[in-house]
Amino acid sequence: MDKKIVTFGEIMLRLASPGAERFLQSPRFDATFGGGEANVAIALASFGLPAVYVTALPEKNPIADAAITQLRGSGVDTSRIVRGNGRMGIYFLEAGANQRPSRVVYDREYSSIALAKPGDIDWRNAFDGAGWFHVTGITPAISATAAELALEGMRQARGLGLTVSCDLNYRKNLWKWGTSAAVVMAGLAKLSDVVIANEEDVQMALGMGTSAGVASGELDPRQYEILTHDVLAAYPNVRVIAVTLRESKSASHNGWSACMNDRRQFIMSRHYEIANIVDRIGAGDSFAAGLIYGLLRLPASQEALEFAVAASCLKHSIPGDFTRSSLDEVNALLKGDGSGRVQR
Question: Where is 185: in which H helix or E strand?
């Protein structure tokens, strides 16, 4: 029986302008749920792995109840969620199009996870039957106590022998409290076996840079090999670092690929042209889930990386934070079925 994969973070109410409208261009929002670590848990469950989601949510709150119901309906174990003080976090999304970028506005102060502190979660119970723990750099950005709680969980996971993965996920609009992101994120990286990032995450969260030039649409694999080597040299505990490579030609048209260094070899994935993006929010989380799946289930690092990139490529076609792709659909894309023809 597979060991459980535990993810920890904040699930929020997501309020998105319809289609590509500006905020309140029409008097409504499309209400769903989302959050990096919840997105990973749902994707893992869709790939057939036992996923457990840990968070803090307000008690006696029907919106929080609805979020839990949706997680359960997606096959995620929610039995370790803590209910207590605070409110439900919210984020507002205005989807970009063509040359107009997407915008995200956070409303997360005094949320239950922002108020949570070390000791509020029974980690030993949360890790019962688990073999993997996944966190991101989003939770530590919310508040000092949330950062301490994430670090507490990572330390206990390592002490119990779990594999620990961290998606650096630098969010400049969230880092408002005292300590710098680089100091906190270095602490998370030192406790991680697997690090996931994009180029900006490595620069802003770990203070390491490259001139590889994703923003210009020109990729230099040698620069990424140097970058991943530098991270592994700086953090000897890290066994694997994977970097997603997004070439933003416009808000609607991106190139998508990734690279990985597992201390044995540096590898690049195949490249996907995504010319009509439906929703890119959650694509990185689908990559993280795909990589965890691949490292656990697939025989080679190249196969794990390719699965992660294919899974995240498909997420760009799905509205909302959560992926809705099955294992069979990801494998079909890996086999070359990317034409988009109707399946009859």
Answer: helix 181-189
- Kindly tell me if the per-residue pLDDT of 219 is higher than 90: no
Sign of CA dihedral 201, 163, 40, 219: positive
Furthest-apart CA pair in the chain: how many Å? 56
Q: What is the pLDDT of residues 235-256, one digit of tens each?
A: 999 999 999 999 988 988 999 9
Query: How far is the C-alpha of 198 from the C-alpha of 333, rounded, in Å?
Result: 23
Q: Which amino acid is at 80?
A: R
- Per the CB < 8 A criterion, the answer to whether 71 and 41 are in contact is yes
Structure tokens at 38: 């919840």
| pLDDT, tens digit (0-9, with 9 covering 90-100), for 152-203 | 999 999 999 999 999 999 998 888 887 778 889 999 999 999 999 999 899 9
Helix (H/G/I), strand (E/B), else coil: 271: coil
Nearest-angstrom CA–CA distance, 202 and 232 = 12
Looking at every residue in the chain, the average pLDDT score rounds to 93
Give one DSSP letter per residue of 208-242, joined into a string: ------TTTT---HHHHHHHHHHHHHH-TT--EEE
Q: What does the alpha-carbon distance between residue 67 and residue 34 come to, in Å, rounded to a whole number?
A: 9
Query: Would you call 189 helix, strand, or coil by DSSP?
Result: helix
- Residue 255 main-chain phi, psi, to 5 deg: -90, 145
Tokens, residue 3: 């060991």
